[in-house]
Write a structure and sequence with these properties.
The protein has about 575 residues and is an alpha+beta fold. The chain has four domains: about 180 residues, no CATH class; about 100 residues, 2-Layer Sandwich (Beta-Lactamase); about 80 residues; about 150 residues, 2-Layer Sandwich (Heat Shock Protein 90). It has 16 helices and twelve strands. About 25% of the residues are buried.
């Protein structure tokens, strides 16, 4: 999954080539600067020791060279300790005078003081190199010119002091000056090339670092799981989606783990080993089933990496996809067209249904027989029922505006919920223990009684499907709050939901049951939103016989129907 170092992040994202300097000072420049400073200090110390040795051996009793070398050594040491690495300017500024200028002056004075006894002209190479490497080409050529002029000045001085043929001094000055110019030019070219190489290396490192961060961000945000394992099954890397799909707390708590630690992961291990043995990519459907959890079906694809240089080790990249989400996505796409078709059919039904209702009303006016009257009344009742069904389809399909359609009268939430719970227990023959908690005062909400029955029965059916058969396994509560909302809660002591299920809980056509259409909670949400209410899920605790018990809690929050002119505050 790692991009090649020379790849761009996206079109047009290459780093600008016009940047003349890197963000930070190059490390190579700092090493060169410290090397030159150390060379100056070392040279100054050697010159001091040399002049002291000459003085004590009796060759020369002049102490002036010792003082000059000592001053040069002190200046070099101060520049090394008190200054920081910096580039030289384009002119003979204070930085140039404090380093290169001191060198040229010291070597020139030593040459004049000691005359022909010692030749100091090779030492001029050091300041020329410093100017070439640490400064611009103009400064390097200027430094070489300064050294050359001083050499010619020394030759002219020797012509005055020493009679005879002094052409050798001029030839030596010219040759040394030419060498200084050549050295300054070549050294500057080499230093510039090294600086450009380091700048390109810094840019490449920056691009690689940005690419790695983008890759990690993309992998972390993927809904598909990605595992990177070795031949022993040790997980080298795993994104959050893969850890959730593995369905075990061990994978969530530890940064590294082994697929052989859990028996439920054996299918992944087998596919991984098959890929390593066959040296090619593989694909299989794997079922992960941990104790106390439902089975989870995954579509797994593997891809082998190229062998690492040196060790020759290959890694297996595993891509995990939750088949339940894939199937839900396919069902959503297929059923979306069916929903549009059902809305169109509902529109077409309304016209003949209106004709049937009108014809039945006209027929009822001419009938006198009570038995015939009973038949027309049955037709009228079923026609109204069909009209409500058509209207529900149109509402859920968002063909019409809810605000203009859903204008129900107020109902008593306590009484309506109690009646629906009694009917549900009667229909289920009381096989699910249910406890009803009602609010002490009256709460009126705007909601159709039939739609509220549909919402509550659906929530009770889900609770009965997953709750235990202990006492108070299902608890229905009606309450009010200071935010002017009536609340209806259906709680059951069922096992916690998988996070993949919880994430798509109220989406259409998504269900953890293979035989369920996945429309129940979606219709509940659509009906609640049609009346300005909301429905939500949370994992909460309830006290049962003095002990806290965790369970699944579905809560519906209603708009309260206030009394005209005076809000109805709940205690």
């Amino acid at each position: 999954m790692k991009l090649p170092p020379d790849a761009q992040l996206w079109p047009g994202s290459a780093l600008p080539e016009s940047d003349a300097e890197p963000v930070a000072k190059p490390q190579e420049f700092e090493r060169l600067w410290l090397g030159f400073m150390a060379a100056r200090v070392t040279l100054g110390l050697v010159l001091v020791l040399l002049q002291v040795a000459i003085y004590f051996l009796g060759t020369s009793k002049d102490s002036t060279p010792i003082l000059i070398c000592t001053g040069y050594f002190g200046a070099a040491l101060a520049a090394r300790l008190l200054s920081s690495p910096h580039t030289l300017g384009k002119t003979f500024d204070l930085q140039w005078i404090g380093t290169i200028g001191v060198d040229i002056l010291a070597f020139a004075v030593l040459q004049v003081v000691q005359g022909n006894s010692i030749n100091y002209t090779p030492l001029f190479v050091l300041p020329v190199l410093m100017a070439s490497v640490l400064g611009s080409l103009l400064l390097a050529l200027g430094t070489a010119a300064s050294a050359t002029l001083l050499l010619f000045a020394y030759a002219a001085w020797m012509m005055i002091q020493v009679p005879g043929d002094v052409s050798t001094y001029f030839f030596q000055a010219a040759l040394t000056g030419a060498g200084c110019f050549v050295i300054s030019f070549l050294a500057h070219q080499v230093a510039t090339r090294l600086a450009n190489v380091e700048l390109l290396a810094q840019r490449s490192q920056l691009a690689t670092r940005v690419q790695r961060q983008v890759n990690e961000l993309v992998i972390e945000s993927l809904t598909d799981g990605i595992l990177v394992t070795d031949l022993r099954g040790s997980v080298r890397a795993a994104n959050p989606a893969a850890r959730l799909l593995l369905g075990n707390q061990h994978a969530l708590e530890y940064a590294s783990f082994n697929l052989t630690d859990q028996n439920a992961w054996q299918g992944l291990v087998d596919l991984m080993r098959l890929s390593f043995s066959s040296h090619r990519a593989g694909q299989a459907d794997v079922i992960i089933h941990h104790a106390g959890q439902g089975p989870r079906r995954l579509r797994v694809r593997t891809q082998l990496t190229t062998p690492n240089e040196g060790s020759g080790e290959r890694l297996c990249v595993m891509f995990l996809q939750d088949q339940r989400e894939m199937e839900a996505h396919l069902r959503t796409e297929k059923m979306a067209s069916m929903g549009r078709m059902s809305a169109a059919v509902a529109h077409e039904i309304r016209n003949p249904l209106a004709a049937i209702t009108q014809a039945n009303a006209l027929l009822d006016e001419d009938l006198l027989d009570p038995r015939h009257k009973q038949l027309t009344q049955m037709v009228r009742q079923n026609a109204k029922r069909l009209e409500r069904i058509v209207q529900d389809v149109l509402n859920i399909s968002s063909v019409q505006q809810r605000e203009s359609v859903l204008t129900p009268s107020a109902l008593d939430l306590n009484a309506t919920v109690a009646r629906i719970c009694d009917d549900w227990q009667a229909q289920t023959s009381g096989q699910y223990p249910l406890r009803l908690n009602q609010w002490p005062s009256r709460i009126e909400v705007r909601f159709e009684a039939d739609h509220l029955r549909r919402v509550l029965v659906n929530l009770l059916d889900n609770a009965g499907r997953y709750a235990s058969h202990e006492v108070d396994a299902i608890e229905v509560s009606v309450s009010g709050s200071a935010t002017w909302q009536g609340r209806l809660s259906v709680w059951s002591d069922g096992l916690p939901m998988d996070q993949t299920v919880e994430r798509h809980l109220f989406e259409p056509f998504f269900s953890s049951e293979s035989r369920s259409s996945g429309l129940g909670l979606y219709i509940c949400r659509e009906l609640c939103e049609g009346y300005g209410a909301s429905i939500a899920y949370d994992r909460t605790q309830r006290n049962r016989r003095g002990k806290p018990v965790s369970g699944n809690d579905f809560t519906v929050c209603f708009r309260i129907n206030p009394t005209p002119g005076k809000p109805q505050r709940q205690a």
